[in-house]
Amino acid sequence: MERIFIARITQAQYDVAHASFSAAHEMLDLPLLGTVDMERTLRNARSIAVLGIKPESRRDLDAHQIPLYLQKVGYHILPVPTRYPEATRILGVPVRRRLIELPAPIDVLNVFCKPEEFALHVEDALVLRPPLVWFQSGLLELSAARRLLDAGIPVAEDCIGCRRASMWPSIEPFEAQRSAAGSRTP
Predict the structure, then answer these.
(1) Which of 47, 95, 103, 106 would give a disulfide with 76, using CB separation of 3.0 to 4.6 Å?
(2) Name one Pfam family in it (predicted).
(3) Are 2 and 68 in contact (CB under 8 A)?
(4) pLDDT tens digit sequence for 128-148
(5) Which domain holds residue 153?
(6) Beta strand 47-51 with 76-80: parallel, antiparallel or unpaired?
(7) What is the pLDDT of residues 56-106, one digit of tens each?
């Protein structure tokens, strides 16, 4: 059984870190998605393509642990590794090598690769036109983000796993959470 590692931080610590990212984005004049919209997206999303996902051989890295966590809580993960040509399946799902090879539609494109690696995939992202491109914290590529925003594609930057965990800390899948909470959603 795989263990899932999610950082244990307080909500206050998370809010301080998120506020500093938000302030930096405002200085750069990047209209990124806010917390309310990110959480709404996560409540409604079912499929998340992960660009830069790491295979099981690198299970100790966040780029494997966070997609694994998201899969465990009910999202359909579509792996698009930027390295590891030997990987044919990650998290039990066939890998794609390019974003334009993904089955449509996807709900979120989660970018888990270095900014210089994403620059090689921005054209595919523009063709794919996902409803949201979500960069992991610290991985925002500014010129690509501007191109996506100019094309009308919303952009977010935050740890998608931490944001999901802060909304609904249980790691039970969505459907079990909905049943337990009645009409409330995660």
Answers:
(1) 47
(2) CoA_binding_2
(3) yes
(4) 999 999 999 999 989 999 999
(5) 11-168
(6) parallel
(7) 999 999 999 999 999 999 999 999 999 999 999 999 999 999 999 998 789
* CATH code where residue 108 lies: 3.40.50.720
Query: Cα 20 from chain centroid?
Result: 19
Taking Cα atoms as reference points, which of 151, 83, 68, 72 lies closest to residue 113?
83
In a domain, 183, yes or no: no
Q: b vs e for 129-149, b when ≥16 Cβ sit within 10 Å of the residue's Cβ?
A: ebebbbbbeebbbeebbebbe
Backbone angles phi and psi of 92, in degrees to 5 = 80, 5
Q: Copy the structure tokens of residue 120.
A: 């090689």
Side-by-side strand order, sheet with 108-111: 76-80, 47-51, 108-111, 133-135, 155-157
Question: CA 177, 65, 160 angle in degrees (round to 5)?
Answer: 60
Q: Which amino acid would we find at residue 150?
A: D
Q: How many CA atoms does the CB half-sphere of 26 hold within 13 Å?
A: 7
181: in domain = no
79 DSSP β-pair partners: 50
Residue 6 inside a domain? The answer is no
Residue 115 is encoded by which pair of tokens?
């900014």
Residue 132, domain member (yes or no): yes
